[in-house]
Amino acid sequence: MKNLSKQKTNVIRILESQDIKHNVFEYSIADGLLDAVNVARKIGVEQERVFKTLVTIGKKTGINVFVIPGNYELDLKKASDVAEDKSIEMIKSKELLPLTGYIHGGCSPIGMKKDYPVYVEEIASQYEYIVISAGKIGLQVSINPRDLLLLTGFKYADLV
Fold it and tell me: What are phi and psi of 133, to 5 degrees?
């Protein structure tokens, strides 16, 4: 894989500053097809490797971040169990930017405004790389899950 973009986001700057191997992919957003399955097709990557970042709020634990394959839905019961909270729900889109610094569709677990607990679907451990948002709609970055662990301190969990 090769870098297909010259754009620099906070995510890309962090990866470069830490000398973390990654590839950047830019894709067209003009058609409005922004879900992970279409993104995978656009950048030529298997759909199970394209992960989405979901931000939730728990009654007890507050903000939690979940990174799951884009072709799956987050199981909120499993997420609640992993975060050790009775109830977790997705945050509203309008709350995403003030909490994370990212907008809906461009949210990355790397470089959020605060260090929130991050949980990654355990299937990621089987891959040499996964693809996550580079912090902007139309831009993705591939990264080895071990490197993502170094940056976020995430925990693997069964989330889907």
Answer: -65, 140
User: For 18-68, what is each residue's pLDDT tens digit?
Assistant: 999 999 999 999 999 999 999 999 999 999 999 999 999 999 999 999 999
With beta carbons less than 8 A apart as the criterion, state whether 42 and 75 touch: no
- What does the domain layout of the chain look like in residue ranges? 10-157
Q: Where are the beta strands (DSSP E) in the chain?
A: 22-26, 51-58, 62-69, 88-90, 118-121, 130-136, 139-143, 155-157
Read off the pLDDT band of 4 (50, 70, 90).
Answer: very low
Kindly report the pTM of this predicted structure.
0.94
Six token digits for residue 157: 């969990």
Nearest to 92 by CA among 82, 100, 81: 100
Is the Cβ–Cβ distance between 107 and 100 less than 8 Å? yes
Task: List, in sequence order, every beta strand (DSSP E) within 2-129.
Answer: 22-26, 51-58, 62-69, 88-90, 118-121
Structure tokens given for 74? 């987050």
Taking phi over 0 as left and psi of -120 to 50 as alpha, with beta for the rest, 135 belongs to: left
CA angle 23, 27, 31 (to 5 degrees): 165
Residue with tokens 């097809």: 33
Residue range 10-157 forms a domain whose CATH class is alpha beta
